[in-house]
Amino acid sequence: MASQAEPVRSSSQYNGDNKQNGIIQALLTDLYQITMAYSYWKSGKQFDTAVFDLYFRKNPFHGEFTVFAGLEECIKFIQNFKFSDSDIEYLRSVLSPSIEEEFFVYLKNLTTDELTVYAMDEGEIVFPKVPLIMIEGPLPVVQLIETPLLNLVNYASLVATNAMRFRIAANPNTTLLEFGLRRAQGPDGGLSASRYCYMGGFDGSSNVLAGKMFGIPVRGTHAHAFVTSYVSLQDISIRTLTKKNSTEKVDFVDICLKWQSKLTSVIDFLADQVQPGELAAFISYAQAFPDNLVALIDTYDVIRSGLPNFCTVAMALNECGYTPKGIRLDSGDLAYQSLHVRRIYTKVAKAFDVEWFKDLLIVASNDINEDTIHSLNQQGHEINSFGIGTHLVTCQKQPALGCVFKLVEINKKARIKLSEDMEKVTIPGRKVAYRLYGCDGNALVDLINQQDEPPPSPRERTLCRHPFQESKRAYVSPASVQVLHKVYWKNGMIQQHLPTLKELRDKAMKSLQTIRQDHKRALNPTPYKVSVSSSLYTFIHQLWLDSAPIGELS
Amino acid sequence: MASQAEPVRSSSQYNGDNKQNGIIQALLTDLYQITMAYSYWKSGKQFDTAVFDLYFRKNPFHGEFTVFAGLEECIKFIQNFKFSDSDIEYLRSVLSPSIEEEFFVYLKNLTTDELTVYAMDEGEIVFPKVPLIMIEGPLPVVQLIETPLLNLVNYASLVATNAMRFRIAANPNTTLLEFGLRRAQGPDGGLSASRYCYMGGFDGSSNVLAGKMFGIPVRGTHAHAFVTSYVSLQDISIRTLTKKNSTEKVDFVDICLKWQSKLTSVIDFLADQVQPGELAAFISYAQAFPDNLVALIDTYDVIRSGLPNFCTVAMALNECGYTPKGIRLDSGDLAYQSLHVRRIYTKVAKAFDVEWFKDLLIVASNDINEDTIHSLNQQGHEINSFGIGTHLVTCQKQPALGCVFKLVEINKKARIKLSEDMEKVTIPGRKVAYRLYGCDGNALVDLINQQDEPPPSPRERTLCRHPFQESKRAYVSPASVQVLHKVYWKNGMIQQHLPTLKELRDKAMKSLQTIRQDHKRALNPTPYKVSVSSSLYTFIHQLWLDSAPIGELS
């Protein structure tokens, strides 16, 4: 279904706004959802009741776990779902002129009131084949929301999982900062990245709007351009600094120069080899943020210029009653440089009896990915904080999660989608899923039951079967059992409290704790088992047999 | 600079809206731009005049060309740049309490009126090192817009280039459709993808909102779920179809069954082997869109069920005066299947004397990337149209372009950023760039001059030098010379017509025509040469010498 009859509008007409008052528009969908809706409507199937499962088939990044993210956005989309008059007008212009007018009335009056949405909690650790979201309702309505739901869950879950992998790779005391705005897919891509990286375990972001919108702690100091914009100490027009908790103004530049000369022998550098513009930049930044100096020291030469200039200004700040924060490295061998910086910190600490100096921050931010962090850990390093951009937000290792949205029941009849690729066979019918835990609190297995089966009971033997392979099965006696889905939307209303982003982050961190270490390791992790009940197993295989082609072996 | 003092807000407070009335907010930037602005302001550098270049260092996808995209969004961002009261209030809450109050007044009153923006035309084919955008103005203002500009140009140019590479790979008569909404980075990522893939040479998108907002032709028919939602012919509650240009209603299901039996011998299938639900789905879709049937034929079995069912309904449509469109394949061996489908089309065409049947559409859409298209072309195939999602919009091969924004001049003094990595050395100072063309209309070389040099003249020998390597130089006598940058923003006003998206697409296609074939080929393309004038070469190398460390070889 297509039309090019409509003249191409000036791209400026709609001004790039995909939302109205922050609401994602119903039209953010694939055209085929609309053409299918018309076809359902026309053949009288608009009242058919369908159940669709949203799930993924494979964990990303060669890993064995995923974080579920994006649910709040899905629920709010469903809450606000509505075709506007201008949407209808647009659809009328692009769809075939043979479309009956009453269909547009139907679309205009369409609501999500008759949908029931079952979902896992956002922030839960999730696994392949277990539905993240199950939706029941009128066939055309469920289909219309497929694309926006996939859009909202796919990238959110992917980038939250990526962030969590960085979180696992880094030392727990290491601060992780998301610096990806400039590499994300446009403004909204950048905001999604900041939001879901925080949920996945990052500690802050450079993205100021994300800070404002989502309450994420924001971080940042200065760029190379800041350093190169200063040529010499003459660029500092105001030389003074007011001492901390005092009104006394001192010539801060003079104090810096005094410390420069004191430091030359201690940390072995030549005052005429440091870049004067870099020194001026650090002084200027220190005057602006005397309690927050994090100096980017690699613009010219880390060892001969950047680090000595930082120590100079840091000791001058100390003399004035302030405490500097540390340095940032943005190029070169981060392991080697961080060890060197820590050695110099320690030397200065001893030489001037400033114990805290050895613990100053070392931030690193040069094209870091998950493997870099593992490699740095093996080499040994002294980095306290990573700023991570490109690899984090673009998910370079695997830039798409691949969630799918599959019909599993229509008018109470289970549907199965067969495929020669076993991984692509769907699990039919309405289901209930459980997570079974051992007595150590670790998750043992996820179990999918048919809707009307009794739930597994703690301390009772439960048969867990691989959905497709007969030989794979085990009896599990769980210490405790968790129901994985809750009703999030019913009768036109949100049915659950939607947590704050901070609560979602806590939830994700807590859920991660219940996953065994061997499922989380970077190299060859053990697959977590997702199973079905004996009854569901039999049902799947009966449906499979029923749909075999007639008259031949296949 | 950071603060966690602010309690983390409910993520629902701002409702995910990154824009107000479609305008990207000024706060969509990295925090360090704000902290640097404060530092500049505090040290009296807020009136310094800076020149920054926005450029990239390497073409993406192992290619030798890039399409410049995102300029309109940049210019509109600059036009609407303004900190709101709530932005200021937020900044006050997260910045150090030591920040002077007058700075917030300064921020509140900040405008982009004093900026001058020089840019290449959007849609132009561009190369490494030649600035896409050059911005001159007050240092803090230019820095504040760095992040949003990089955000807006990076992904736009990357995905437009990716689209163009698909366009080059495909046969010129092949229709390319973007199907990536569900795999993009959130709603806005999806819209950017649709917009810039169209600019890069795609013919349409499945994204309905992108169609509405940007006038992109929208396409789509139905999904597998549509097919599986029908179980048998009994699902068709209305059996009739009105004949084309007539009021006569016929029993369309009966006509289909008649054609099914006629076709069994012609294309060799068994009526009891086709899936009845699939036939019902195609009939239903045909009743809704009798002139637009594109049937997805791989839900069960392409050869035994999907294709016979399509031919059945297609011939029935023909009997009723309508013309079907064709089929879509979404799995399996696309080359083999498309050849088979064309053979069957041809058989039907001959058997029933319907010549046009052999030319029906074959659309393919299974996880297609650039290499798949090259491989299909080598094998031979009959596909008329590709629907491409994941690989296109996520740019799987290289998910970030890596544009940078570098200070090249401050207060009329050129600045150079040195690096041990030659590729990272900046070209200092304000520049003027030209594209030199041969008499065949092909681009020969891009040439960067210093600001005050005379331009190269047609038919005169011009020395073009590699910016960093002394031995690489050549005399070029161009047939014609194009100035590459225009003033897009000055005195607070847009200075150029901003073309429609369709015009930008035409521009990109036209610009591509001027690039030699060997620069465009997929495997080992020849690098296009970017050069500097003799005078700029000397200037770079003088600055380089001047900034050498004192007292040693380095």
Automatic annotation (TrEMBL), chains A, B:
Record-stated family: Belongs to the NAPRTase family.
Residue ranges of coiled coil: none
UniProt xrefs under PANTHER family: NICOTINATE PHOSPHORIBOSYLTRANSFERASE
All residue ranges annotated as the Nicotinate/nicotinamide phosphoribosyltransferase domain in the record: 177-426
Transmembrane intervals: none
Reaction catalysis annotation: 5-phospho-alpha-D-ribose 1-diphosphate + nicotinate + ATP + H2O = nicotinate beta-D-ribonucleotide + ADP + phosphate + diphosphate
Post-translational modification: Transiently phosphorylated on a His residue during the reaction cycle. Phosphorylation strongly increases the affinity for substrates and increases the rate of nicotinate D-ribonucleotide production. Dephosphorylation regenerates the low-affinity form of the enzyme, leading to product release.
Limits of the Nicotinate phosphoribosyltransferase C-terminal domain: 430-539
Job of this protein: Catalyzes the first step in the biosynthesis of NAD from nicotinic acid, the ATP-dependent synthesis of beta-nicotinate D-ribonucleotide from nicotinate and 5-phospho-D-ribose 1-phosphate. Helps prevent cellular oxidative stress via its role in NAD biosynthesis.
Keyword Calcium: no
Positions of the Nicotinate phosphoribosyltransferase N-terminal domain: 27-154
UniProt-listed GO biological process terms: NAD+ biosynthetic process via the salvage pathway
EC number(s) from the headed UniProt entry: 6.3.4.21
Recorded metabolic or biological pathway in which this protein acts: Cofactor biosynthesis; NAD(+) biosynthesis; nicotinate D-ribonucleotide from nicotinate: step 1/1
GO cellular component assignments: cytosol
Protein name: Nicotinate phosphoribosyltransferase
SUPFAM superfamilies: Nicotinate/Quinolinate PRTase C-terminal domain-like, Nicotinate/Quinolinate PRTase N-terminal domain-like
Gene3D superfamilies found in the cross-reference section: Aldolase class I (3.20.20.70), nicotinate phosphoribosyltransferase (3.20.140.10)
Keyword Ligase: yes
